[in-house]
UniProtKB/TrEMBL annotation:
Name of this chain's protein: Lipoprotein
Pfam family membership, one: Lipoprotein_15
Keyword Metal-binding: no
Signal peptide extent: 1-25
PROSITE patterns for this protein: PROKAR_LIPOPROTEIN
Keyword line: Signal
Domain of life: Bacteria
Alphabetical GO biological process terms: alkane catabolic process
Family annotation (PANTHER family): BLL4220 PROTEIN (PTHR39335)
Keyword Ribosomal protein set for record: no
Amino acid sequence: MKTSWRSASLVASAAAVLALTTACGQESGSQSASQNVGATAPAGGYGGTGLGTNAGTGTGTGAGAAAGEQNAGAQAAPAGTLSVASNAELGKVVTDGGGRTLYRFDQDTAEPPKTNCEGDCATAWPPVPADDAAAGEGIDESLLGEVTRPDGTKQLTIGGWPAYRYAKDVNPGDTKGQGVGGTWYALAPDGKKAALKDLPGLSTRDDPELGEIVVDKNGHTVYRFTKDSQWPMKTACTGACLDKWPVVAPVDAKDTKGIDLQGSTPNRGYVVFDRPDGIEQQTIDCIPIYTFAGDKEPGDTNGQGVGGTWFAIRSDGKPVGAPAQ
């Protein structure tokens, strides 16, 4: 064969930022230094049970033998005739002959094609063999190629990008690997990353269990920490806490849909929090907002109720399911 995701920024003058944060009661230099993370992530953690917490980095360790045994067939399966599947959240993605989603890894390169996923990484993300790969409907044959892996085997490339399966995708059409570690993405037919389509920086969705909740531009659930303070605005999540609960960066008000921009104080609820660690964080009704590292897929709500202190947030800033104060 021939070898062949947007960060939104919020620009404001120092005076404007000071005025807004003062309206939320922010007191410079007085934020809490507490690092209560709210207990531990749910079973399985960010990397998933059996695949190691660094499965998405290419350098992870501890890929489970059980996971490997259960997915031995998927790892050894040939590519077969590739096709294009329509995913409600990701649009068009490439699948192999068995209907399994194919992925690409940000730490690889396409020009020239090169794989950087070996060892345990290749157990969690089995390389797709190039030998029998064929272009089916919707696949441009000229984009298919191969790269020689360090072990001498030939791996399929699409648009130059080495192609992989994800060991935790059990059924055809699964896309559990999307966004894992911030480096793994389903392959679009042109070799680019498949990505959630047309989502604003912040919007809402209807969760079958939690009702209306806020999600970010990647479709990931947004949370609040009950140990944070609204009046005055302070954070109790610093240091190591942020590894599990990354802050939501500033999002322009124009890049939102369904979010209450007024808040308890009209026209002043949707502001940027100037954290004590220098990080700028978006707030809703002066409440700092976060995502959860344990949410691997759009729609996950694994952070809900963690430690009895972390809860999904509604469009008006209220926590979902939190005990009455």
